[in-house]
Amino acid sequence: MVAIREIGESAFDEQAFMALLKDSVDSGASIGFLAPLAAEEGREFWRAVLSELADGRILLGAYVEGKLVGSVQLAPVAKPNARHRAEVQKLMVLQASRGRGVAKALMAAIERKAAELGRWLLVLDTVPRQPAEMLYERLGYVRAGVVPDYAESSSGGFDPTVIFYKRLA
Ligand SMILES: CC(C)(COP(=O)(O)OP(=O)(O)OC[C@H]1O[C@@H](n2cnc3c(N)ncnc32)[C@H](O)[C@@H]1OP(=O)(O)O)[C@@H](O)C(=O)NCCC(=O)NCCS
What we know:
The chain is an alpha+beta fold. It is 30% helix and 34% strand.
């Protein structure tokens, strides 16, 4: 049974979140880093995330038997004309915990949170032909288009990204 919790600075377990990020990056996920993840890059990333919680960023953790197995973030857009919009970022699940509905539970929770905050238009992007693309399509995200050569790939060259959006009911 997976439990989803919103994480504030006091509940943040740096070691567990570092291990989660490293597991995803080193498995080839395109989430902003090149493999192998350098510890300092990971620490800097999580420090920045924590510092943005005060500005409205939402960090959710997924726990199975008390262990962190997944995470996702919501970044509400701060622009005055975009108070209805937010970006879903950095969905990741430990390799050993994949295929059991953890990502689905995280996405359901982040959508509930977005709706509570009045953010009814969600946008996100991901590398095509990866599990995440199937997941977002299954959850009703609409494909807006593909940007070629969007991000450097850990395996060399550049990967495209596919942009999705979803209007919450
Ligand atoms: C994408 C990711 C988060 C999915 O996590 P997960 O917990 O395994 O996903 P779930 O078990 O909740 O699966 C939900 C749905 O996603 C799709 N899906 C998940 N893994 C899949 C796979 N390997 N192949 C095809 N579809 C897959 C399925 O539609 C599945 O629904 P179903 O089981 O009812 O068919 C996980 O693979 C991951 O962390 N990848 C690396 C990080 C990454 O790429 N993040 C996306 C950044 S935008």
